[in-house]
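=== Structure Prediction Worksheet ===
Name of assembly: unnamed complex
Input type: mixed (protein and possibly other molecules)
Chain count: two
Listed entries:
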Amino acid sequence: QQQVKQSPQSLIVQKGGISIINCAYENTAFDYFPWYQQFPGKGPALLIAIRPDVSEKKEGRFTISFNKSAKQFSLHIMDSQPGDSATYFCAASKPQGAQKLVFGQGTRLTINP
Amino acid sequence: GAGVSQSPSNKVTEKGKDVELRCDPISGHTALYWYRQSLGQGLEFLIYFQGNSAPDKSGLPSDRFSAERTGGSVSTLTIQRTQQEDSAVYLCASAEMGINSPLHFGNGTRLTVT
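=== Predicted Assembly ===
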């Protein structure tokens, strides 16, 4: 049973454009929602994370928007750059500290120069 | 500083053989996780170690999979009698204590079972 659904599977954006990746979750017990960025041959690296007590979090060009009632959250990359080309994973975990993250299927983002 | 180190980076084995995958976490990190990343799939949680507590093995897919963490540091993931469906990238991550501590992933071991 897939608890976090991510879309689209792949995305092509022109340099300078806005990249948007969406995730939906089922388990209302989730309270931590990180996004990870993964380059080929490397492990995922934490990009930005949000908890459900806020609706938006921004770090530089990266913004998470969170809609608790819809059980959805999204990653927006402003002014997308070729260096942003990577696979992005959303994830979610429950309280109690242990980050037994449930990951989405991933989105392969390509930024065309 | 040094990140999470995993070895080997690649492993090719024959079906039915046992394999051991090693993870050296970041020094001082008390939490250690193993995840599996199959082709075209997201990351799947396998097992979690926190300090001296009993590990959370709830994600291990079968009893052919086991893991240990010696001295609160290095961890080894063992897969016995490997099957072709075990082919995947096995990722190790470590974290400091605390619910807001991010996971730091290694670059993984790519396992291919022929």
